[in-house]
Amino acid sequence: MRELKFLLSLWKTNLAAAMEYRAAFISQSIGMILNDAVYFVVWIIFFDRFPSISGWQLTDMFIVFGISASAFGLAGLLFGNAFNLGDIIVKGRLDYYLSLPRPTLLHVLASRVVPSSFGDFLYGFISYCVSGQFSLDGLGRFIVGVILATTVFVAFLVLVQSLAFWLGTGGVFTGMAINAIVTFAIYPITLFNQTAKVILFLVVPAAFMGAVPAGFVKGFSWSTLGLMLLGGAGFLALAILVFHAGLRRYESGSAIQTEV
Amino acid sequence: MKKYLAVFKINLLNSLAYPAEMVTRSAMILLFMWIFFQLWRITFAAAGSDSINGLSLHDTMWYLLLAETLELGRPRLARVISEQVKDGSIAYLLNKPYNFLVYQLSSGLGESLPRMGMLFVLGGALVWAMAGPPPDLVNWPLALVALAGAWLLHFCVNALIGLAAFVAEEVAPFEWIYQKFTFVLGGMLIPLDFYPAWLQTIAKSLPFAYMMYGPARLFVLPDMQLFAQIIIGQLLWLAIFGGLLVLVFSRGMRRLAINGG
Hints:
Chain A has about 260 residues and is mainly α. Chain A is about 70% helix and about 0% strand. Chain A has one domain.
């Protein structure tokens, strides 16, 4: 409860800080909505020419793209430092968080908001609403799907960037990891063979960010919900474990840092 | 000219100084090409034909490789220039005895060439293994000329977006949207030949097709008539964007206020 209050205060402060640059926040959000919409036109053109690919149709793409965009956006809004945790570790900027009496990982992740993320988050909902499969209970499942997809996505980012504790560098892998999970998440899962699917569930968990929650949105199933909860809890636990294992190796550079 | 050659050389050597990092960064193309192959393999099978609108699976893959090489290998100049404008470091480049725009061009080319080479080699090896050998060597010169024109067009638009920082607080959205228009109207993810006729007409009358589709299409199916059409189009758009770039830069200089040092 105490940590939840702390998180809410952090998010409130982040939002206030983002709103200090209101024009940039609004222009980046609108820009991102347009960016996502223009990108999706590729799929509209593709499915107009080839209406069904291994049973996957345009309406499925609207949902899978919607879930992925909203999850990506929610991660940037609530846990913006998930995108540059590796850099924070390498530059010794964890010192600030370690000196405060709050859970280090939670504190560092939630200390930044990526302004353009609001556009992604909103676009996901727009995509679902125009998918032709909108319903109120579907919207409820969409929200659950987005939350669980965000959990897996943030956990995956923490896992990959915690490698910086051992490697001393993180930038290249972070870019690759983000590209990999997002790219795999927004392509029809039916394209991939069994081996690739195992990778998409266990190594680069793109299935939990796209196809699995999209299936849940289309129709409720206890097994899909269970799978998503298991995926979310499993990756989150692993991420926390690896981060703390790495933290034991962390060495401060004693550099003077300013956190704003 | 010598000084720009020196800038080009410095950036080239800088890019080559960390080969392991360059290979790791370029490895991203393997993922994209593998996914494209899965998508188009199934699409061609579903279409029940070896060729769609004149392109085979082999042509499509090599087309996409060239398009991806250009997209992933071009320098992210918009970001660099807008940061220089916003943090004032542009002042340190303006007081040097060279033209700012030609300096950016030489530096961007030095950074971009090795990266594009590595992307092409890595991606090409995978595409060769999956879809077959590259197009005949006689196809390459036409594609290379068009590739140079496409690179210059990207340079002009990127520099224009970067210079927009003189008037706009944040230029990133312009860059995202420009990139996505290149994806859609440039035929980066789907060859324009697969588009409906009306959309092909629109796409081919805009600059994006000359930045992506032109060189990629010439690489797989060269044709002198198409080559002439693409080069004329590129020259025309280069004149427009190049002129605009010079104009925006000179007006931007008049707005520039440098305080202290």
